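Figure 6 in text form: structure in, sequence out.
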């Protein structure tokens, strides 16, 4: 059984839209983790990966538009980090499509997503909190 995400107020970056997007992503990741730990069919797992990807894309789009609007100084670097993440995400999707989802692959997917998400939240808290803080939506 994989450890599921639990929203904690410490994760909040005090921006309702972004906090809500993070919460939705966590719920979607939890559904995927449950499918992985219960050994659900490949189609269900692919569906879970796609569903989470849609929420992540929506979040990235919102965030980038927000950063552009407020002239976020490290925009290019940030766009690159999204691209790198999405490339890795696609790789996992390809691997899942090409073979059976072994326990090992399930652990890899779980670790990849949960580690990324934790560092994503930490980064937004540490690096962007001051940036977001005094800006309107
Ligand atoms: Fe981002
Ligand atoms: Fe985020």
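Output sequence:
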């Amino acid at each position: 059984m994989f450890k599921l995400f639990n929203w904690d107020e410490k994760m909040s970056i005090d921006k309702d839209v972004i906090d809500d997007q993070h919460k939705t992503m966590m719920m979607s990741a939890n559904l995927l983790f449950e499918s992985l730990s219960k050994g659900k069919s490949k189609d269900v797992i692919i569906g879970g990966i796609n569903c989470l990807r849609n929420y992540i894309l929506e979040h990235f789009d919102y965030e980038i538009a927000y950063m552009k609007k407020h002239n976020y100084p490290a925009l290019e670097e940030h766009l690159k980090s999204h691209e790198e993440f999405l490339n890795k995400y696609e790789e996992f999707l390809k691997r899942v499509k090409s073979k059976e989802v072994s326990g090992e692959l399930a652990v890899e997917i779980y670790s990849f997503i949960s580690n990324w998400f934790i560092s994503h939240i930490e980064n937004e808290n540490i690096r962007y909190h001051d940036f977001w803080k005094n800006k309107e939506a």
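Caption detail: Residues 15-133 form a domain with the Four Helix Bundle (Hemerythrin (Met), subunit A) fold (CATH 1.20.120.50).
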